[in-house]
């Protein structure tokens, strides 16, 4: 089986999705979206490896125990 690369990104025009001091409050507007609606569930079921930066990891690990 050939390796495949999938990209799931959140980005902005200035290259930063967080505001000053790491503020992510703008994401609250999307908190009612289910993982199925965003494609997240499908992505997670279809991957073997995740590559992310340290700041993203620190943020995500706090969301998911």
Mean pLDDT: 78
Structural class: mainly alpha
Give the C-alpha Rg.
14 Å
Strand content: under 5%
Given the structure, what is the number of helices? Answer: 3
- How many extended strands? 0
What is the approximate shape? globular
What does the main sheet amount to? none
* Order of H and E elements: HHH
- Sequence stretches where pLDDT stays below 50 over 5 or more residues: none
Overall structural domain count: 1
Fraction of residues in helices? 25-40%
Measured distance between first and last alpha carbons: 33 Å
Describe this entry's structure for a reader.
The chain has one domain (1-65). Helices cover 31% and strands 0% of the residues. The chain is built from 3 helices and no strands. It has helices at residues 35-38, 40-45, 54-63. The protein starts with 34 loop residues before the first helix and ends with a helix. One of its GO terms (molecular function) is 5-amino-6-(5-phosphoribosylamino)uracil reductase activity. InterPro entries: DHFR-like_dom_sf (IPR024072), RibDG_C (IPR002734). It comes from Burkholderia aenigmatica.
Nutshell version of this structure?
With about 60 residues, the chain is an all-alpha fold. The chain is built from 3 helices and no strands. It comes from Burkholderia aenigmatica.
Key features of this structure:
mainly alpha, globular, 3 helices
